[in-house]
Structures are given as C-alpha cells and as structure tokens.
C-alpha cells in the first residue's frame, strides 16, 4: 500500500498504526526500505507548504517517496503517545514540548538522539541560548524546533470598532483593564459580542493567563516562576502571592462581567474564530499563527490587533514566545536514517522563510533578518516589529512542566471561570502542584 502525499488524520486510536504495519509502511526500528518516508505534521496552514518540501526532497533523493500524515491539535496532546511509541509510528513525529508527550516518550526511551542532525545543520549556532538549553537533555538533543510563535495578540474587527466609536489602540497597547472592559462594553452596545476565547480548547484560556501574568508580577518573580519548580530552587515566589491571584481574579471577573463571548466555555478555538470571521464577534484572542487562518476565511472587514492590558499600571504588555513545535524521530521508526536526512534538509534558512514565515509563523533562526520576512503578512510583520521594542518573555504555561503548566492549568481555569473555584482556591491548587515538583514527588525534569 502506497500512501498519497495528501494529508490524512494520523490518529484513530492506534488503528492507523496497525494498518500501516500490515501494509508494510512501518515495520519497526530500522526495518524499512530506506526509501519510503512518513512524516507527521500538524494540520493547518503548514500542511500545504510542506508539500513542496516533500517534492524537493524527493527530487534531491531519487526513488524516495515522502508521505505526510496530519495530526490535529487535540490528538497531538496525548493520544499521539501511543502511535509514536508503536511499531507503526511515522518516521518523523510531531509534538509540542509542553504537553507531556515529550517527557513520556523520553522517559520510556522512545526517541532517537538527533545530535548528528544538530551538528550537520548547525542548529546550536542558529538557535538562541534558551532554545538550545530547552532542547538539551543530559547533553543530547532529541528533537528539532522548527518555528517560534508569538502568543496573545488580540485581533479586532475595525468596522466594529468604528461603529462603536473606538479608535485603533495606539501602538497596539491598551492602557488598563478598565479601558479594555470599556471597549468591550461599547462593541456590545453596537451589536457585537465582545472578546473571543476558545474556552473548551486545551490551551486558549491558558494563553489568557500567559498574556496577563508578565505584567501582574515583578520581572524577577516572573523569571523565578519559569524555573522554581526544580528541586532546590532558591526562591520563595509562590502562586498564592497577590500578583498571580490578581491574574486569576481578572480571568474570573471577565466571565462575570460578560467580557467573553456568550457560551465561551463551550467553544473551541475554531468555533471562536468562526464567530469572529462571520462578523458577529468584535475581538479574538490568538497568536501570530492565527492570522493565516483568519485571512483564509476571507472576512468582509479589515482587521487590526492589540495586546491585552497590563495588570500593573504603567507597564507595557510584552509578547509571549512559544518554543515548542517539535519534530522527532521515534525509536521504532522504520527509516530513521532517512528521517534524519529529511530533518537536516528541512532545517535551513531557505525553508524557514519559504515555509515557516510563509504560513504565518516566525523563523527560529536568529540569523534571518526581518527584511527577508515580508511574506509573514502585514499584521504579523507588525507584531514581529513591536516584539522587538516591548520585548519577548518565555510563555509560562509551556515553559514549566505540564503537571503545573498547560495540561494542569487549563482545567483549573475552566473551573475558575465556571465559578467552581475561587481565585484563592485555584491559586492554592497551583501552589500545591509547584510544591509537588519542588519536593520531587512529581517529576518535571524532562518536560
């Protein structure tokens, strides 16, 4: 059986894996034909652009056939562990570092070291120091980071703002929470829904927290929160401190005040985007990666964007940088050498511009000048430029281990917004999770 290069869902339990093995497309570690390469990639704008990479690789390696297999966001966050651990695994797998999939595979020795790929592609010199550190485990590299994302720009309907009498936010900043809540009140009075968040998604409420946290606490405390889960960390910063509680209080208050769209907790990000592009929702939380999907929907209005307000007056809201979209070679890959060859082929300046930037994400190589990234799109180009003045911080819920970050945090936030927890109760749950990590009761070393 020869799979086409067109994308197909990679997961239906592990049934696909079993079918692949039976058909001879995945026969276990090193047991492949050395010519058939199965590459798992996330569904979305990247998928189409990767088609060209596959064609280029086939041309450079005659006789090779590349098949791309799509995995959606939900499946990549847990169920994908079973596939990537099986003998039916693709030769190259996709995961996000922050979801616990990485640590589960690494703990069970299900990832192939990629030190030779890093050396051949010069990745240690092309990534930032923090990215190199993040992708180094016991002196080895088990994945390649292929894009960087800017989290937390809020897209808005310019026609809705004009109708509500709201000027474009100067420098893409909103001065205060009160100003932001006033903006929502005005667009609702003009007949629109307010601020869109995918409340049922496994990450979007976490991004609201990520956007608010850097300006709710002192910069040193924020930095401590990114590392104080490690046993023996010399810090007394706690999640029950007033700044973090203020973040939780704000998120809950926005539900009580009707800031979010109606039915927010029952909507995923696709539904929230649909509400926005239909013209009924005035504002949508997103990232630089959202813009390509929004444009693809061809809304009837012009879009703008801004950052959520600071929780400490006078501070400017920075961008959150997510460094987690990762390609790996599973230990049971049929063609690991061919997989490594493909990763080396793909991780170049050429494809960072023609594939990554062209689909609305940011290249991870610091050597690529901004002047060569006009294909990002106008709004994303603006975001990149502003990020260099207001700054970037490592996104909290994807930097700390999943047992404290995104996988743990979002269900707590959903209960908070639903009124099942007070901000103080939620803060105590975060603190307890932190203490479990600090004590070594729960491992977070490889997340």
Automatic annotation (TrEMBL):
Family annotation (InterPro entries): Bact_solute-bd_prot1, SBP
Record bears the keyword Signal: yes
Record's keyword terms, sorted: Signal, Transport
PROSITE patterns in the cross-refs: PROKAR_LIPOPROTEIN
Signal peptide positions (record): 1-24
One Pfam family matching this protein: SBP_bac_8
The UniProt record lists the keyword Coiled coil: no
Protein family per UniProt: Belongs to the bacterial solute-binding protein 1 family.
Listed PANTHER family: ARABINOSE-BINDING PROTEIN-RELATED, OSMOPROTECTIVE COMPOUNDS-BINDING PROTEIN GGTB
Protein name: Raffinose/stachyose/melibiose transport system substrate-binding protein
Lineage: Bacteria, Bacillati, Actinomycetota, Actinomycetes, Streptosporangiales
């Amino acid at each position: 059986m020869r799979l086409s290069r067109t994308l197909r869902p990679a997961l239906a339990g592990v049934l696909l894996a079993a079918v692949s093995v039976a058909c001879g497309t995945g026969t276990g570690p090193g047991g492949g034909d050395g010519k058939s390469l199965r590459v798992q990639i996330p569904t979305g704008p990247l998928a189409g652009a990767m088609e060209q990479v596959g064609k280029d690789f086939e041309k450079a390696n005659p006789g090779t056939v590349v098949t791309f297999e799509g995995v959606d966001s939900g499946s990549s966050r847990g169920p994908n562990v079973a596939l990537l651990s099986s003998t039916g695994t693709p030769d190259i797998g996709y995961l996000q570092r922050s979801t616990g999939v990485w640590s589960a595979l690494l703990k069970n020795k299900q990832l192939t070291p990629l030190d030779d790929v890093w050396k051949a592609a010069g990745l240690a010199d092309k990534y930032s120091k923090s990215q190199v550190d993040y992708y180094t485990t016991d002196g080895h590299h088990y994945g390649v980071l292929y894009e960087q994302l800017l989290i937390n720009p809020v897209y808005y309907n310019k026609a809705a703002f004009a109708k509500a009498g709201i000027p474009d936010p100067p420098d893409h900043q909103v001065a205060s929470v009160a100003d932001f809540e006033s903006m929502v009140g005005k667009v609702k009075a003009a007949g629109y829904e307010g601020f869109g968040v995918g409340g049922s998604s496994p990450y979007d409420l976490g991004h609201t927290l990520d956007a608010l946290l850097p300006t709710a606490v002192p910069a040193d405390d924020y930095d401590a929160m990114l590392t104080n889960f490690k046993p023996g960390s010399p810090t007394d910063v706690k999640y029950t401190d007033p700044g973090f509680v203020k973040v939780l209080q704000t998120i809950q208050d926005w539900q009580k005040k009707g800031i979010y769209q109606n039915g927010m907790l029952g909507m995923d990000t696709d539904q929230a985007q649909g509400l926005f592009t239909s013209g009924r929702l005035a504002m949508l939380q997103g990232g630089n990666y959202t813009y390509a999907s929004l444009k693809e929907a061809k809304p009837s209005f012009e879009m703008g964007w801004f950052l959520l307000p600071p929780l400490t007056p006078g501070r400017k809201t920075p961008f959150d940088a997510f460094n987690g979209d990762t390609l790996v070679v599973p230990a049971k890959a049929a063609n690991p050498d061919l997989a490594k060859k493909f990763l080396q082929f793909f991780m170049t300046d050429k494809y960072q511009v023609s594939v990554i930037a062209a689909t609305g994400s940011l290249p991870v190589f610091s050597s690529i000048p901004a002047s060569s990234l006009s294909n990002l799109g106008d709004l994303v180009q603006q975001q990149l430029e502003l990020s260099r003045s207001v700054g970037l911080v490592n996104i909290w819920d994807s930097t700390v281990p999943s047992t404290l970050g995104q996988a743990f945090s979002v269900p707590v936030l959903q209960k908070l917004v639903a009124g099942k927890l007070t901000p103080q109760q939620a803060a105590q749950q975060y603190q307890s999770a932190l203490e479990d990590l600090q004590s070594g009761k729960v491992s977070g070393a490889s997340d």
